[in-house]
Automatic annotation (TrEMBL), chain A:
Organism encoding this protein: Roseibium aggregatum
Residue stretches making up the Leucine-binding protein domain: 33-397
Keyword Chloroplast in annotation: no
Record carries keyword Signal: yes
CDD domains linked to this entry: PBP1_ABC_ligand_binding-like
The protein's name: ABC transporter substrate-binding protein
Taxonomic placement: Bacteria, Pseudomonadati, Pseudomonadota, Alphaproteobacteria, Hyphomicrobiales
TrEMBL record, chain B:
Transmembrane segments: 27-44, 50-69, 104-123, 130-151, 183-204, 234-256, 262-281, 288-308, 320-341
InterPro entries xref list: ABC_transp_permease, LivM-like
Membrane topology recorded in Swiss-Prot or TrEMBL: Multi-pass membrane protein
GO molecular function, one term: branched-chain amino acid transmembrane transporter activity
GO cellular component: plasma membrane
Organism encoding this protein: Roseibium aggregatum
Signal peptide: none
Localisation per UniProt entry: Cell membrane
Name by which UniProt lists this protein: Branched-chain amino acid ABC transporter permease
């Protein structure tokens, strides 16, 4: 190759690249929400519906109401691929533009952002994932994990199993298998499950699934076949979920005794098992289906108007609606923050106040067209999780159906453990900054 | 014309043997150091420091580490990611046990743990070579990764299984943890990288480096000339793992702040290997160029559509980046299989004879 051409080409490429480096200034009259999404990589199967649900809800608010409180929302996606390094890169790239809140959708990225949140004064809303201990608002004023922590979820599963068996005392001698993604995410609930196992006398069998082998779980399920647990509980994500459901069908595990966490409740996850997956259960805290006025508005203003990349069939699926719930919580926190601070264009600090004062009552949910979509939730300064009730849904071969009423988590067991864990975290990361933010309520 | 060393006479052996015998090289290095130590800290924003320069320097150092082993001593290794992990976990344990000791000292010490483990996994290199050796280092990668997940003592029994870096001060300045300013972290990373790179450059042109290259070029001949393969190969493994370990510790202490075992997975090993191959096997400058290509270019590419005002969804940008970088890797390896270091050499030669090429 001609050297001159080559050198010229390189120079042009470098110049182009560096010119791209000038950061676009944040528009003054909008509230900026960066979305760390993953539509690529092994977790894209779970990441796409969530990303769609979130951006569609924000787009709907912009189209229908012109934003929140008359201020448009400026939503920008940044692709993380569920990779913690890229997540941090996205965070650094967007935090300077006046980011209000981060929704990392990855326990790994959440862990990276937790210490940064108080320094950069941008709250993190890890809705139903992340560090369970972050529910202690006195230690983690900038982290929110409403409506439930993993420990709440784990306690609900045990409670539900006890309910099936006819009481907590019937758990004695039972074998409960725990199939989990061997990463921070899947390991989070183990301390609580072990605690409950001791308390109620059941045996906890652990089946870790390494991240890179989540599509090959034959060895784990061979062990399941050998151990014959009475129930299986799954903490899976991405490609792990459909694989586990398929393997469960193959091993002829009774599907109505196989219960997934809310992140294993995707439509594609259950559908992968075919007809055999009928009966598979999962926890959930967001409504399924499209019979909510707000979701109808999304269809009307965004999807039918061609302003979204969402496939219409995806609307109403569990994970899509989960994304809608997350976006709705962010939107409601913005509205609360606007009321509390009197400002229209917010900062991360205002947003923290909004999140900490978030009180989603049943009336409010009805007002925004999501009546019965989620349990009313309230965040306080002490309790950033809320530990709201969760319901169980069951797959009937074609769609999810809610089969139980709302189950309260065992807050009496979970809360002391949460506080102990928060203290432990602060000690291990000493000197951990003490809370200086005043309580807005 | 630009790169002609005619007229630069050396009057002593010292001058003749110096690290940069040509004046233009000395000026070039001085300019680069000036940019790195003065210009970038004065002008760069936080994003440029934390997401581009710090990772770039960390990866450069890791690539130097692997280059010592693969490029200079000729031992193919796929375990560099795990050796980086050893450094990171060692430094983390050290700072939890000795919270008052200077964190930079601990980072430098953690490399010795990595070096010891690297030397142990280097033992098979006496019997097997090439791809077969790569497979045994692959075993090291998987075994160590398993340790990071399965030995809770390594991560202080954290429920999350991740290591989180506490705040550490040095001379009144916070250098690690979330409160550390990007600038402080950048200076620490830059200083460690520059010092180790200079040390390695000197080791490589001395007796030890030459014995590594003899082993690489023909081990039987080297043995006949009195080089002991056992010590030489194990030393190469040790030094390489030491550098990788320090890079790994810097990665979590001064860049990421928290790391899961998956941060040190096989993907990282391959990333480092690609940097070395693209940059040029057996070249220190190439390690920097390779790291820049693999790490900085994708970040730049991501910004191009936004700047040009083209509205492309984030995931499409990601796919495009993958494709462009992949295509460029193939393109560069076809144009110059010996990597950027060789391209730079050719460029220097062209500059020397310009404007009258012969």
């Amino acid at each position: 190759m001609n050297f001159k051409q080559f050198a010229l080409g390189t120079a042009v490429a470098v110049a182009l690249g560096s010119s791209g480096f000038v950061q676009q200034a944040a528009a003054e009259d909008s509230n900026y929400i960066p979305l760390l999404t993953y539509r690529t990589g092994p977790y894209a199967g779970s990441g796409i519906p969530i990303a769609n649900g979130m951006s569609d809800y924000f787009a709907m608010l912009n189209e229908r109401d012109g934003g929140i409180g008359g201020v448009k929302l400026n939503v920008e996606e940044c692709e993380t691929g569920y990779n913690a390094q890229k997540g941090v890169e996205c965070y650094e790239a967007t935090k300077g533009k006046g980011a209000l809140v981060y929704n990392p959708y990855s326990t790994g990225i959440t862990l990276q952002l937790i210490p940064k949140a108080s320094v950069d004064k941008i709250p993190v809303l890890s809705m139903g994932y992340g560090l369970s201990a972050a529910a202690d608002g006195n230690v983690f004023p900038w982290i929110f994990n409403a409506p439930d922590t993993y420990w709440d979820g784990a306690s609900v599963v045990i409670k539900y199993i006890a309910h099936q068996e006819g009481g907590l005392d019937k758990l004695k001698g039972k074998k409960i298998g725990y199939l989990f993604l061997d990463a921070g995410y899947g390991r989070e609930p183990i301390p609580l499950l072990e605690d409950l196992a001791k308390k109620y006398g059941f045996e906890l069998l652990q089946y870790p699934v390494p991240g890179k082998e989540m599509q090959n779980q034959s060895s784990q399920w061979l062990n399941v076949r050998r151990d014959r647990p009475d129930y299986m509980v799954m903490w899976g994500w991405g490609a792990m979920n459909p694989t586990a459901v398929k393997e469960a069908v193959k091993t002829r595990f009774p599907m109505d005794r196989f219960i997934g966490v809310w992140w294993s409740a995707g439509d594609d996850d259950a559908a992968a098992g075919g007809a055999g997956a009928k009966g598979y259960k999962a926890m959930n805290f967001s409504g399924v289906g499209t019979e909510y006025p707000a979701i109808q508005d999304i269809v009307k203003y965004v999807i039918d108007a061609g302003k979204s990349e969402t496939d219409k069939a995806m609307v109403g699926s569990t994970l899509y609606n989960r994304g809608v719930l997350n976006a709705m919580m962010v939107a409601e926190a913005i509205r609360t923050a606007q009321e509390k601070t009197g400002k229209k264009v917010l900062t991360g600090e205002d947003m923290r106040i909004g999140l900490e004062s978030l009180d989603l009552t049943a009336e409010r949910l009805k007002e925004i067209g999501l009546d019965g979509f989620a349990h009313p939730m309230k965040i306080t300064c002490e309790d950033h999780a809320g530990s709201e009730p969760v319901f169980i849904q069951q797959w009937d071969g074609a769609k999810w159906n809610k089969i139980t009423d709302w189950f309260e988590p065992m807050t009496d067991v979970v809360r002391p453990l949460l506080e102990a864990a928060a203290k432990d975290y602060a000690e291990k990361n000493a000197p951990w900054p003490a809370r200086t933010e005043p309580c807005p309520n | 014309m630009f790169y002609r060393e005619a007229g630069q006479f050396k009057t002593s052996y010292e001058a003749d043997q110096s690290l940069f015998p040509i004046r233009q090289d000395r000026i070039g290095i001085a300019v680069l150091l000036l940019i790195a130590f003065v210009l970038i800290p004065l002008t760069a924003n936080d994003f440029f420091l934390t997401s581009i320069m710090i990772p770039f320097l960390v990866f450069s150092l890791a690539a130097i580490g692997l280059n010592v082993l693969t490029g200079f001593a000729g031992q193919l290794s796929l375990g560099s990611g795990a050796f980086m992990g050893v450094g990171a976990y060692a430094a983390y344990k050290l700072t939890s046990i000795f919270p008052d000791v200077n964190v930079i000292f601990l980072v430098l010490v953690s490399g010795f743990f990595s070096a010891a483990i690297g030397a142990v996994f280097g033992l098979p290199s006496l019997r097997i070579k090439g791809l077969y050796l790569a497979v045994t280092t692959l075993a090291a990668q998987f075994f160590l990764e398993w340790c990071f997940i399965r030995i809770p003592w390594l991560y202080n029994y954290n429920a999350s299984g991740a290591i989180e870096i506490p705040k550490r001060d040095m001379f009144g300045i916070t250098v690690s943890g979330a409160e550390a300013t990007p600038l402080a972290r950048y200076f620490v990373v830059l200083a460690i990288t520059v010092v180790i790179a200079l040390l390695v450059a000197n080791v490589l042109r001395g007796r030890i480096g030459r014995s590594w290259m003899m082993i690489r070029d023909m081990d039987i001949a080297a043995e006949l000339m009195g080089i002991r393969p056992l010590q030489t190969k194990l030393l190469a493994f040790g030094v390489s793992s030491y550098i990788c370990g320090v890079a790994g510790a810097m990665m979590v202490f001064f860049w990421l702040n928290a790391a899961e075992p998956s941060s040190y997975s096989i993907t990282l090993s391959f990333q480092i290997l690609f940097m070395v191959i693209l940059g040029g096997l057996g070249s220190l400058g190439g390690s920097f160029m390779g790291a820049a290509f693999i790490w900085i270019l994708p970040v730049f590419l991501k910004f191009i559509p936004g700047t040009l005002g083209i509205d492309i969804p984030a995931e499409t940008v990601e796919h495009l980046t993958f494709m462009i970088v992949g295509a460029l890797i193939i393109f560069f390896l076809i144009v110059e299989p010996h990597g950027f270091a060789r391209l730079w050499q050719i460029g220097k030669q062209k500059l020397r004879v310009w404007p009258f090429p012969y």
